């Protein structure tokens, strides 16, 4: 078993979808918040749960152009199609797979999550649209019928696996699932069970507690690792990957932000280790373009280091230039701003100068 410094562990080769995710190169396409399973541990936020809306990364999707724009912004090498359950909006899912494959080519890797027992016909449609990898979530409702679909997905030529949370104390069940997958040539992804705003009351009622250093459930990691040790002893030909909650939340997100920030940073923006953008910001009344011209002239600022940001109605520049200007221009308001490189450019810190 191999372990990573973030606490992840794996046996055998990682699924292609995970490899790209670990580079921060996967676009997250949320095709609908609808789902029939009703799992008590579902971590979906109120904003998305049960709402038939589409999101790409953190952006609401209003048109295909939004999806393509976001993929280009982060130089995505693939996409993970998620929800809710994407299979409940199969036509929409097929449309997005085709859209991405047509625009970015066959090598653009698309994986999808589902808890639906898909028919052979539906699986063939997904394969024909270009789906590369399918991850089934086994739930109390869909088990054991879902195994038939897992089998059929493999036969349809889709790389298939199971992705489930590791429930504390349930290593026997995990080993049993892995044994079945070994026979089918599928992979097993284990996620550390975690608390979210929406599932916390249900997890608490069932006696789960916090691990302490994160939102992870105590005992989930130990169970996953114990099961993996047993699988190694059995020398089963199955690929298993355990992903910690901290890595899922912080690691993958940080890498995706970093990738987007490096691809989209303007010449006056600095990219932090966390993948955020740092810059100087000037707020003023009146004509901002005229003010920008004046600042360039009077303070000898190269044009590419100062720009008018129309959506936020402000002038942006480097931190150093903003600090320098703040010494002389008391009538303007200067700030150092740190923000996400996401479409909404959400600010995380605003420090007045
Ligand atoms: S299958 Fe997934 S999306 Fe659906 S309820 Fe369960 S955890 Fe939530």
What do you see in this structure?
The protein is α/β, with parallel strands linked by helices and 353 residues long. It folds into two domains: 2-261, Aldolase class I (TIM Barrel, Alpha-Beta Barrel), CATH 3.20.20; 265-352, no CATH class. The chain is built from eleven helices and 17 strands. The protein has helices at 16-22, 64-73, 90-104, 120-129, 146-155, 171-184, 200-205, 220-234, 245-264, 288-299, 319-328; strands at 2-3, 9-11, 26-32, 55-56, 59-60, 78-83, 109-114, 133-136, 159-166, 187-192, 239-243, 270-271, 277-283, 306-309, 314-317, 333-339, 347-352. α3 (90-104) runs parallel beside α4 (120-129) and α6 packs across α8. The protein is elongated, with a radius of gyration of 23 Å. The chain starts with a strand and ends with a strand. The mean pLDDT is 94. Iron/sulfur cluster (SF4) is lined by residues 35, 37-39, 42, 44, 83-85, 115, 137, 139.
